[in-house]
Amino acid sequence: MKKLLLTAIVLIAFSSAEGQRRTVNLPAQYWTLEQSQAILDNTQTTRLAPDISDLSAGERAAVGKLNEVGEIFQKIYVKQRYPEALSSLDILNQLDKRLGSTAATQNLLTLYRLNQGPVATTLDNKREPFLPVKSLHAGGGMYPADATKAELDAFISANPEKTDEILDQRTLVRRTTAVNLQMDLATLRKYAVLDALHPNLKKQLLSLKPDAKSFYAVPYSIAYSDELIKAHGLLNQAADAVEKDDAEFAGYLRNRSRDLLADNYESGDAAWATANFKNLNGQIGAYETYDDPLYGVKTFFSLNVLKTRRPETTNLRKALKGLQLLEDSLPDGDHKKVKEDISVGVYDVVTDFAQSRGGNTATILPNESLYARRYGRTIMIRANILQNPEIFDASLKGFQIAVAQKNVNDLTSEGTFYNTLWHEVGHYLGVDRTKNGQEIHAALQENSDIYEEMKADLVSLYVAEGLEKSGYYTKAQLRSVYAAGIRRVLQNNKPRRSQPYNTMQLMQWNFFLENGLLAYDRKSERMTIDYDKYHETVGKMLAKVFEIQFNGDKGASDRFIDQYTTWNENLHGTIAKNIREQQRYRFRLFKYAALGE
Asked: What is the pLDDT of residues 381-399, one digit of tens each?
């Protein structure tokens, strides 16, 4: 296949209008220049370039080593999503070189960077491959290419003792073939440290009999052994570099380096959530499950390097007091004891890799309820994205075209900041396990991210009234936070069910309309916000979300999603079209000065 692609006949024509500029007809299954340009014409590039000159030499050296780990994670991540991601990029790079870096091939390389793989999101929110990859299978790179969910469900049902192994958040699922077993045993022989850290794995693999209809799972450290062994060494080098400047951050890096090989993140998460770092922080490892298309349980690699904004961080930590009172105020009968002194910081993004790359404005981790209860969680507000004027201006225009004239001035960047902050705190509050003590992601599977993100949205809005009464918000700030909650639910395209954020936002939009918080006027094609109904409506929906999470009822979670994901072209479609028409850009490509971009 590779040879055929590289030896395909390429027709080259010189354009008299462009002098030496060349256009080409690419081989079949590559997007044409016109197709790729349509996406890139709607893409804005944002360059993140925080000043790191005030970091010490050791800190800057650590940043360099962490960036090397990020590049490793980037390659793992695209493999996790698409088995052919790296091979298709390699062929594209060879084709680009052979043709002399044409506009068409350069566009495709940019599309690959934008989409982190060979599949693009189109202007009408579809997913289409722009490189000649095989038909995309349901499980991405985390499950066997020819396995269906029905087949895996049947296997788990027939082998319940395998459930935890197959659905573990940091394992890759394989068919039980002789080739796969021999490959994994060879990895354990190659790396004695992995054999030592997984003492029962070799015995388990040796006990399996080849059976193409059977499945087993291996830890990420085995599946990506070469990459993670290298990352382990680089993290320790970064720790050595920063030791004199920030011993706590160095300790976190060393713990995380071991975590990557043990596939158990407790030591690193404990160090991360309880430490008081100085100038640097970073998310390192496999955490979020948004990209798992089958079960919503597999975590995907990410890394970012963050520089602390010290004054803003100090002020924010002082403000976040009284979390237990807010927890107790929620419409949930299973209140828990929360750690009030949680780690929170305001940061500038220096670099971003893999799953965390993009316009993410804030993060709260770890996700595992056990570790969160033991050590708390850490919240990272990404200020140079959240406060970027170009990004906020695009959001504001979408809000203003969708709401009634009397509401157009309600949204401010300050409201967006607080809404984002308390969304992350919202992950920490409320239901975090089912009534049977099960992790919610295991109970609700592919729906779990939808409900967790919706919970966080609704908590941030529900507690806003209490925060205003306590003096944390002014009345004007409360109104802006509420307006930010409305802006968040507005869609510019009908969501795909595989998009957890967009799906839960549509559900809120419909619930708000049903309960009178929003009212649509067909004549003006705009919506009016009834702020007097805000707290009650949000509380009503939040109680339903808590109920579904606490009961761990997958069927109920499906039914609630189906009920509130209706798309009416005369309402949702009209609002979406109006938002699209005023948008100059639909996509955003991030570049990083620290990577020389």
From this structure: 999 999 899 999 999 999 9
CA distances from 479 to 101, 426, 487, 507, 522 (A): 51, 19, 12, 22, 25
Q: Which two tokens stand for residue 303?
A: 């890394």
- For residue 432, CA distances in Å to 129, 410, 502, 545, 551 come to 37, 33, 22, 12, 11
Dihedrals phi, psi of 309, to nearest 5 degrees: -95, 100
DSSP conformation letters of 132-155: -PPPPPTTTTTS-TT--HHHHHHH
In whole angstroms, give the CA distance from residue 593 to residue 55: 15
User: What distance lies between CA 574 and its chain's CA centroid?
Assistant: 28
Question: Nearest-CA neighbor of 379 among 407, 336, 346?
Answer: 346
Nearest to 382 by CA among 424, 345, 419: 345
Secondary structure (DSSP) of 449-518: HHHHHHHHHHHHHHTHHHHHHTTSS-HHHHHHHHHHHHHHH--SSPPPTT-HHHHHHHHHHHHHHHTTSE
H or E element, residue 270: helix 266-274
Alpha-helix residue ranges (DSSP H) falling in 363-447: 369-375, 383-386, 389-402, 413-428, 440-444
Q: Which residue from 68, 255, 60, 295 is spatially nearest to 168, judged by alpha carbons?
A: 295
For residue 447, which of 503, 368, 367, 511 has the smallest C-alpha distance? 503
Which is nearest to 356 in space by CA: 283, 266, 428? 283
Spatial contact of 257 and 282, defined as CB atoms under 8 Å apart: no
447 by Cβ neighbours in 10 Å (0-12 / 13-18 / 19+) ranks as: buried
Task: Name every residue whose Cβ is closer than 8 Å to that of residue 484 and which is 6 or more positions away in sequence.
Answer: 411, 415, 416, 418, 419, 420
Q: Integer distance in angstroms from the first to the last C-alpha of the chain?
A: 33
Report how far residue 186's alpha carbon sits from residue 201's, in angstroms, rounded to the nearest whole number.
Answer: 12
Copy the structure tokens of residue 8: 């395909």
Residue 509 burial (CB count, 10 A): 24
| Residues paired with residue 174 on neighbouring β-strands, in sequence order | 216
- Can you give the pLDDT at residue 369? 83
CB atoms within 10 A of CB 204: 13
Cα distances (Å, whole numbers) of residue 21 to 12, 38, 103: 11, 19, 8
What is the Cα 540 distance to its own chain's centre?
A: 27
CA-CA distance, 512 to 534, in Å (whole number)? Answer: 9
Residue 333's pLDDT band (boundaries 50, 70, 90)?
Answer: low
Q: Output the pLDDT for position 368.
A: 87
Alpha carbon distance 417, 394 (integer Å)? 15
**Tokens for 159?**
């082998």
Q: Which amino acid is at 527?
A: M
Lowest-pLDDT range of 35-39, 310-314, 478-482: 310-314
For tokens 């809000």, name the residue. Answer: 399
**Token pair for 149:** 């969910």
Compute the distance between CA of residue 464 and CA of residue 115 in angstroms, rounded to an integer.
35
The whole-angstrom separation of Cα 132 and Cα 87 is 11
CA distances (Å), origin 114, targets 94, 118, 570, 597: 19, 10, 32, 14
